[in-house]
Amino acid sequence: MRGDRSPTPSTTLLFAEPPTASPSPPSTSARAAGCSTGRSPPRLWRTLVERVSNIDTIAVHPDHRGQGIATRILDLVEDDFRQAGYRALTLRHEHGKKHFFTARGYSSLPRLAVDLPPTGLFTRAEPGWKFAVKPLDDTVTLTSQRGVTTITGLLD
Ligand SMILES: CC(C)(COP(=O)(O)OP(=O)(O)OC[C@H]1O[C@@H](n2cnc3c(N)ncnc32)[C@H](O)[C@@H]1OP(=O)(O)O)[C@@H](O)C(=O)NCCC(=O)NCCS
């Protein structure tokens, strides 16, 4: 985040990073598929890292919640990631925080899924957690693939 726009940093915490943890790296079968299509696995993975941003944690001190601080941080971070060329933002959250994220335009999903044609779907689920997902530009949409809400269009 840019320093001149940072809201009350003493009361907030945000860890954002490229998505080394989301979704899972390509599997052996995906590697084979990636090679057969000419898009090598490291290149495929690098493309994902370049296009999907991930917030590991956002937290506001309990004394300062309900004042719009987290909303403002998310707005700023979304703008920054968008300007940096990322196409989607993901964030793992507890089930009880679903409303907070859906009210801010995120889809709250039980499973993180990414469509990587022609290789297929990469998915990740963690018991007790949900994944908030927000497309950051028009090339990315959430579609239903085999009944799973899936981030689609990342490689277009
Ligand atoms: C989730 C969390 C980050 C939200 O932080 P926050 O600063 O309280 O969030 P906001 O103030 O932007 O929004 C919270 C509510 O306050 C309301 N609000 C915002 N500004 C307000 C204001 N000026 N006056 C009154 N209410 C306001 C919002 O409408 C929102 O309600 P809604 O969710 O029903 O829409 C905070 O609860 C937290 O740190 N939780 C623990 C960590 C966590 O679970 N993080 C998420 C996953 S990593």
What would you report as the Rg, rounded to the nearest angstrom? 16 Å
Question: How are strands sequenced across the largest beta sheet?
Answer: 1-2-3-7-4
The overall number of domains is 1
If you average the pLDDT, what whole number results? 81
Number of helices: 4
What is the total tally of β strands? 9
Fourth-tier CATH superfamily name: Gcn5-related N-acetyltransferase (GNAT)
- CATH architecture level-2 label: 3-Layer(aba) Sandwich
Helix content: 25-40%
Query: What pattern of helices and strands is seen along the backbone?
Result: EHHEHEHEEEEEE
Keywords: Acyltransferase, Transferase
InterPro entries: Acyl_CoA_acyltransferase, GNAT_dom
EC number: 2.3.1.-
GO molecular function: acyltransferase activity
Walk me through this protein's architecture.
The chain is α+β, with helices and mostly antiparallel strands and 156 residues long. It has a single domain, classed as Gcn5-related N-acetyltransferase (GNAT) (Aminopeptidase, 3-Layer(aba) Sandwich). It has helices spanning 28-36, 41-51, 69-83, 98-102, and strands at residues 12-17, 52-60, 88-94, 107-109, 112-116, 120-124, 129-135, 141-145, 148-152. It has a 5-stranded mixed sheet with strand order 1-2-3-7-4. A two-stranded antiparallel ribbon has the order 5-6. β8 (141-145) and β9 form a beta hairpin. The longest helix is centred in the middle third of the chain and has 15 residues, at 69-83. The radius of gyration is 16 Å and the shape is globular. The model is unreliable at 19-38 (pLDDT under 50). Coenzyme A binds at residues 57-60, 65-71, 93-94, 97, 99-100, 103.
